[in-house]
Amino acid sequence: MSAAGMAGRLRGSAGSGYGVAFLTMLEPKLNPLRLALIGMSGCGKTFWANRLADAGHSVVSCDARIEERLRAELHPAGHRGVTGLAAWMGSPGEPQYGERAGRYLAAETSVMEEVLAALERDPHQERVLDTTGSVVYTGEAIGARLRKLMTVVYLQASPQEEALLIQRYTIHPKPVLWRDAYEPREGETPRETLVRCFPALVEGRRRLYEAWAHCALPTRVLHEEGMDASRLLRLIEENCRCAE
């Protein structure tokens, strides 16, 4: 199916909860390419950012830059990469979690400020931004600047795919800012609390992702045969231009 045909199919499913949510009319920022991928951890942001990097586009990983800001504490303790960040932060209920989650968010906010300031200084700079799942917690001002400077695309998991995210999280932990979504009950194990509260975390974030994004792409579409970096960009271009 062509990108245009796929775009039409997505627009037709917009009211189903699986299609594309268009939030504003815009001309996609594709020349130079300025694309921010947002969504829950595990939805495919890094996968597609890497495919775009392989195609020759300039990509910034927010995870990598956050790690760099925290490296003086992370690396001596043997914490490297996303799994290292997750081990350092811990889980809600652990004594260090609240303080370290705050420091993680401060580092993430600093990364976003740095990326956006560079785009503001140079209108010709190309950038693909691989955000974290918690980017929507960096504040409304950053969200407004991001929407002004980049095309923001929400990679939207279906309810079935969302059910798999908690499994992936418990097997391969990532640094997650739970905020008020984590509410333990007496007698629950930490894992039982995580599983029960995860849907509330997803729902709260979904509302924020939809508010930040110019359009959303169902992740099931991105799994279709023949999908590659160039086809992804055509699909984003078609859908954003048809926003209403």
Describe this structure in words.
This protein has 244 residues and is α/β, with parallel strands linked by helices. The chain has a single domain (3-241), classed as Rossmann fold, CATH 3.40.50.300. It has eleven helices and five strands. It has helices at 3-12, 45-54, 62-69, 71-74, 81-89, 97-121, 140-149, 159-171, 190-212, 219-222, 229-241; strands spanning 34-38, 59-61, 127-130, 151-156, 215-218. It has a five-stranded parallel sheet with strand order 2-3-1-4-5, sandwiched between helices. Helix 1 (3-12) packs across helix 11 (229-241) and helix 3 (62-69) crosses helix 6. It is globular and about 55 Å long.
Write the layout of secondary structure elements.
Blueprint: H1 3-12, E1 34-38, H2 45-54, E2 59-61, H3 62-69, H4 71-74, H5 81-89, H6 97-121, E3 127-130, H7 140-149, E4 151-156, H8 159-171, H9 190-212, E5 215-218, H10 219-222, H11 229-241
Parallel strand pairs: 1-3, 1-4, 2-3, 4-5
Helix pairs in contact: 1-11, 3-6, 6-7, 8-9
Main features:
alpha/beta; disordered N terminus; single chain; Rossmann fold; 11 helices; 244 residues; five-stranded parallel β-sheet
Give a short summary of the structure.
Strands 2-3-1-4-5 form a 5-stranded parallel β-sheet, with helices on both faces.
Q: What kind of sheet is the major sheet?
A: 5 strands, parallel
Query: Number of helical runs?
Result: 11
Count of discrete domains: 1
Order of helices and strands: HEHEHHHHEHEHHEHH
Second rung of CATH, namely the architecture: 3-Layer(aba) Sandwich
Share of β-strand residues: 5-15%
